[in-house]
Design goal:
By secondary structure, this protein is of the alpha/beta class. It folds into three domains: 75 residues, DNA polymerase, domain 1; 193 residues, Rossmann fold; 68 residues, Winged helix-like DNA-binding domain superfamily/Winged helix DNA-binding domain (Arc Repressor Mutant, subunit A, Orthogonal Bundle), CATH 1.10.10.10. The protein has 18 helices and twelve strands. It has a nine-stranded mixed beta sheet, with helices on both faces. A three-stranded antiparallel beta sheet has the order 10-12-11. The protein is globular, with a radius of gyration of 21 Å. About 4% of the residues have low confidence.
Length: 372
């Protein structure tokens, strides 16, 4: 795992190779260590690796030494996860663009990473109305008191209100930053930042000392959406980072809820658009909302999927049988299957396709599978 960790860092240093291509590399070769030593022709078989990207990889790869990068990185950024680490958040691994490095500060709760504790994202405008503030506080408080962890972006407005209310109710909260985890932005939230470190977690895909950059904030929204089981949009104008988060949530197969407002209220236009597109209503009966959020299936852990139920199956090849042995009646993520079978990701993908065609396996949103 230490060696693979180094290669996640090394690949991330190559310009033109972002989280999506890294995910595809990992799925194609099984490990990024194998991908690092692949020829240009072999890399060219991966979707997205055109001639320009291949030239960059060949040129830059020869100048990089993965183990040296890891050693130096650990000195400057001692607390971070890569997808090679067992503690990396499982829900993020299901997304098409998991951050190659996820830095953190604060109090880690591994049950959140394993998917055994539900996380709900709350997002919205930086300039909320009294109506939006009131409902954000009520909902964040109710979630915290019922065992949910509240995830947001520590921006002004709705983000700040959701973090504060969750902690005031005695719950946990996670702030996903668009800066390094050691940079407080906006600076007026310095007290909130310090409080989160004592009872929650601050995370970022950017290394220490990374200053604010306008391009970072839209991208960090995919982390909020990917790590959460559902996204609640409290108030959002039509052009809003909250809507970007909701779009990511839809892409990742997460549930999206929106707070209805007046049709002539500017902060409510984004929520009304989401509702017209099929988002669920946040209604006055919070018990109903909590019931729906609590009904979202828990994420399978490796231990939970290690004792599958036996079904009567036709004679299968050893590879297909190995994949079937991992699958339980409950859904299992692609990465858990790869980890349990110790097979290359490409072989697992091929086996799952064959099993789907045989009517033995069905695929669910978020690259999750279950027996039929």
């Amino acid at each position: 795992m230490i060696e693979e960790r180094a290669y996640w860092l090394a690949w991330a240093q190559i310009s033109g190779v972002g989280p999506v291509l890294l995910r595809r590399l990992h799925q194609h070769f099984g490990t990024l260590a194998i991908a690092w030593n692949a020829t240009a022709a072999e890399l060219g078989q991966v979707e997205g690796f055109g001639l320009q990207t291949l030239e960059k990889v060949v040129k830059q790869r020869s100048l990089l030494h993965p183990q040296q990068i890891l050693t130096k990185h650990q000195q400057e950024n001692p607390h971070f996860w890569t997808p090679a680490d067992a503690d990396y958040p499982r829900l993020l691994l299901e997304t098409p663009s998991p951050p190659p490095t996820l830095y953190y500060r604060g109090e880690v709760d591994l049950q959140e990473n394993l998917g055994n504790k539900p996380l709900v994202g709350i997002v919205g405008t930086r300039q909320p109305s009294d109506y939006g503030i009131r409902w954000t506080r009520q909902i964040s408080t109710a979630l915290a008191k019922n065992g949910f962890t509240v995830v947001s972006g520590m921006a002004e407005g709705i983000d700040t209100e959701s973090h504060s209310a969750a902690m005031k109710a005695g719950g946990r909260t996670i702030a996903v930053l668009g800066t390094g985890v050691d940079i407080i932005y906006p600076h007026k939230n310095r007290d909130l930042y310090k409080q989160i470190l004592t009872s929650g977690l601050v995370v970022s895909e950017h290394p220490a000392k990374t200053p604010p950059d306008r391009t970072h904030f839209p991208r960090r929204n995919r982390i909020i959406a990917g790590w959460s089981r559902a996204i609640l949009v409290m108030e959002a104008p039509l052009k809003s980072g909250a809507l970007i988060t909701a779009n990511y949530a839809n892409d990742f197969g997460r549930d999206v809820y929106a707070l209805p407002g007046k049709i002539d209220d500017h902060p409510s236009q984004g929520c009304l658009k989401l509702l017209s597109q099929g988002a669920s209503y946040i209604l006055k009966e919070l018990d109903e909302l909590l019931k729906m959020l609590g009904a979202i299936p828990q994420l399978d852990t490796v231990e939970e999927s290690s004792s599958p139920q036996q079904l009567s199956l036709p004679n299968l090849s050893p590879e297909l049988q190995q994949v079937m042995d991992v699958l339980a009646v409950e859904t299992v993520s692609f990465d858990v299957i790869v980890q349990q079978t110790s097979m290359a990701a490409g072989l697992v993908s091929s086996a799952l396709l064959q099993l789907e065609l045989m009517g033995l396996v069905s695929q669910l949103p978020g690259m999750r599978y279950q027996k039929c």
